[in-house]
Amino acid sequence: MSTLTELLQSQDTLLDDLYSLLDQEFALLQQRNALALPDLAIQKQSLLQQIQQQDQCIAQDPERERLAADLAPMREQLVDKLQRCQERNEVNGKLIEMSLTSNRRLATVLTQIRDRNSTTYDNKGTPRAAGGLNLNLKA
């Protein structure tokens, strides 16, 4: 078995691992379990670095012209897997954006409720919002 074939098989395994990790990230986003996301992000970054290093090794392999010949089907399979990983990552990114937007809206609503409930009256009986500047949300 040639070195290039081994590199391609290793790349295939790394892409499978990445897709699995992206599926885990998707599940955590659906469950709104943001606390577990930083650990997954570190793992994802590590896998992406390994994939990039592997890609550089493949590009420098003396037999790389085989990628257009007898190893073309294997190369196409890897390209398809990479494309699926990119699509899953885009979906996860959109879920993160939606979650952030939702959290911002919730913070705005909570601020408005707090400001409405913190209305006080001065010594002349005029309504006045107390604490409009004291925003200490920990959400």
UniProtKB/TrEMBL annotation:
InterPro entries reported in the protein's UniProt record: FlgN-like, FlgN-like_sf
Record keyword Phosphoprotein present: no
Keywords of this entry: Bacterial flagellum biogenesis, Cell projection, Cilium, Flagellum
Entry's family note: Belongs to the FlgN family.
Job of this protein: Required for the efficient initiation of filament assembly.
Name the UniProt record assigns to this protein: Flagellar export chaperone FlgN
The organism of origin for this protein: Pseudaeromonas sharmana
Gene expressing this chain: flgN
